[in-house]
Design a protein that fits this description.
Layout lengths: L2 E2 L2 E2 L6 H11 L15 E3 L11 E3 L3 H14 L2 H7 L2 H11 L5 H10 L1 H4 L7
Antiparallel strand pairs: 1-2, 3-4
Length: 123
């Protein structure tokens, strides 16, 4: 029996497990690998932003979050490193975490505890 992305090829696998494995495979080793631009306009390639807007002004918070949401959901490992910026991700995460899927949020927060540490305490 072989494994791909941590999943064995012989056992039934849930959709959630497949998605988690897919997103885990796209993670950088550390957040320091996120060396994307910190400002200005970014043009995403069509394999990442395949459905709609492709240019994003990172100086506009909503546009920046929209781009980050797309890259987190659709980008491959190289895209994640090239287009995301560590400081912007950390700064936006408290809001951005509510805009991405639960699976993306869970994978990123489990891999990088510093993301979940930035959350306000729950009453």
């Amino acid at each position: 029996m072989t494994t791909v992305g941590g999943l064995s090829d012989g056992a039934p696998v849930s959709r959630a497990a497949v998605l988690e494995a897919r997103y885990r495979d796209r993670l950088p080793a550390t957040l320091d690998e996120l060396t994307g631009p910190g400002s200005g306009t970014v043009q995403l390639p069509l394999h990442v932003a395949w459905s709609g807007q492709t240019a994003f002004n990172l100086d506009l918070p909503k546009a920046c979050m929209h781009m980050y949401r797309i890259v987190l959901a659709e980008g491959q490992r190289g895209d994640v490193a090239a287009y995301l910026n560590r400081d912007l991700l950390l700064g936006q995460w408290p809001v951005l975490r509510n805009l991405v899927s639960r699976t993306v949020r869970r994978v990123w927060e489990s891999a990088f505890p510093e993301l979940s540490e930035r959350q306000p305490a729950t009453p």
